[in-house]
Amino acid sequence: MNKKLIVLLLNLLFCCAMGNAQESQKSELQQRAEAAAKDDNGSIATARYMYIRSFEDYVGKGQTAQGVDCAVKATALYYKENYYKEAFDLLRRADQAITASNGKDSEKAALYYLTSKERMQMYMKLRKAANVKEQLNIMEGHARTAADENVKNDLLYNKAVYYYTFGLNAQGNAVFKEMAGKLTAKKEYDKVDEVYRTLIANARKTGNANMVAQSYSNYIVWKDSVSALKVADEIGALKQQIADNEASIAEKDSSLSSRKLVIVGLCILAAALAAALVLGGIVLLRFILLSRKQKKTIRMANENNALKAKFISNISAQLEPTLKKLDNRQPEVKALLDFSNHIQTLSELENTADVKAETEDTPVQQFCEDMMGQIRNKAKQSVTLVVNAPKMSVSINREYVGHILLHLLNNAVEYTPEGGKITLDFKKRSAHTCQFLVSDTGEGIPEEKREDVFKPFLEIKDLTTGDGLGLPICRQMALKMNGDLEIDPSFTKGIRFVLSLQVK
């Protein structure tokens, strides 16, 4: 992996740089050094000289942490121009200053960690793997002594730099997995998601095809695993909310009982307050009646929605015999028949959403080839059709999966221009998760309309050009199989639909 890519990723993971969190105000020398370093027309030698003077000035004042920071920056400017001997000498002086300082062992360890890290960077540039590994071991010892979580995390990042730089991808993946695990444990799912997406995007920019494939594969595995955690979190939050509501209701019930007793007592003790008590009783009665009325209204609304769905389905079923008597060669008649069938299918899927779809063992490669074969004669002559599926079997509902894939492939045929490409892929993401991916190189779907394509009855359409129910039906079928159908946001050369399924 490109070193610049690793550094960019680490900056995204933790937005604060390593070093002392509580620095004093910067000296004038350091400000001049930083200004020279930032100036595009400035001299590297001038910036380096000012940083070294800042280092010496800080150490002379007993401000070792600030001095070491300046020494490290000057070192980087040395080996930027390949002055490695001078760079190592300056780090040696920085170590001597740390040794002579009066700080705690943990504080000194954090500073030693910074100088060791800079040595590791130089050996990395020199491609000396053994020396890099040696410095990492030294850094690990300093990190233990420093007992600082930021230092430990930075050590993980630098291990990842080392592994990927020298082609140890398996160890690099393990380190990334550990980093993602830490963020996932803190429920910072969006940050992990952003890190993986950035890693994929930058790998593409650098043309590292191997890293793109590895990053995307790791991202999909992580996304599958974290989905279950999100669901568990949401269920836990809902349970807590229900428990809080029940406790609130119980408290209110208890309070209401107490108030009734007080009212009875006051009626006996003070007849003069009878009128006020009657008024309070009326208010209470209205509250109870209003609550009952609201519950009844909600129940009736749910029943009405169910009746509406059944009514629409019945109308469609009753119209079908009449429509079949008409000339179905007429586009309008055929469109009405298709619309009627789609409404019935969508209603049936929604009404049986809690019924589990039956599955059977299916040879994946042959199944995918059959799907592609059904659209082969429909595709434009110069369009390339590709199937990537292994010789294995999975337990799926053939009817639903076949319907979804055929619908997606037919859409791809319609929108893929001459010289384009249509691809059907199968991926086994984990022991119980698989994906069918249908992609084409057509013009795609605008970002703002991607979620709307899965929503039925969103707009009034000319039925002869389609009723817009195809993709909503496909998603309902996917949900019925305990899966999902979505558009891959990372695919930019057309459109890619991803059908994710839970399998045994």
Tell me about this structure.
- With 504 residues, this protein is α+β, with helices and mostly antiparallel strands.
- It contains 16 helices and 7 strands.
- The strands form 2 sheets. It has a 5-stranded mixed β-sheet with strand order 2-4-5-7-6. Strands 1-3 form a two-stranded antiparallel ribbon.
- Strand 4 and strand 5 form a beta hairpin.
- Helix 1 packs antiparallel against helix 10 and helix 12 crosses helix 13.
Average pLDDT works out at 79
Q: Span between N and C termini?
A: 36 Å
* SS summary, helix count: 16
Taking the sheet with the most strands, its summary is: 5 strands, mixed
**Helix percentage range:** 55-70%
Q: What is the spatial order of strands in the main beta sheet?
A: 2-4-5-7-6
SS content category: alpha+beta
Draw up the topology in text:
Elements: H1 3-13, H2 28-38, H3 44-60, H4 64-80, H5 84-100, H6 105-125, H7 129-146, H8 149-165, H9 169-185, H10 189-205, H11 209-269, H12 274-325, H13 331-351, E1 360-363, H14 364-373, E2 384-388, E3 393-396, H15 398-415, E4 421-430, E5 433-440, H16 470-480, E6 484-487, E7 495-502
Parallel strand pairs: 2-4
Antiparallel strand pairs: 1-3, 4-5, 5-7, 6-7
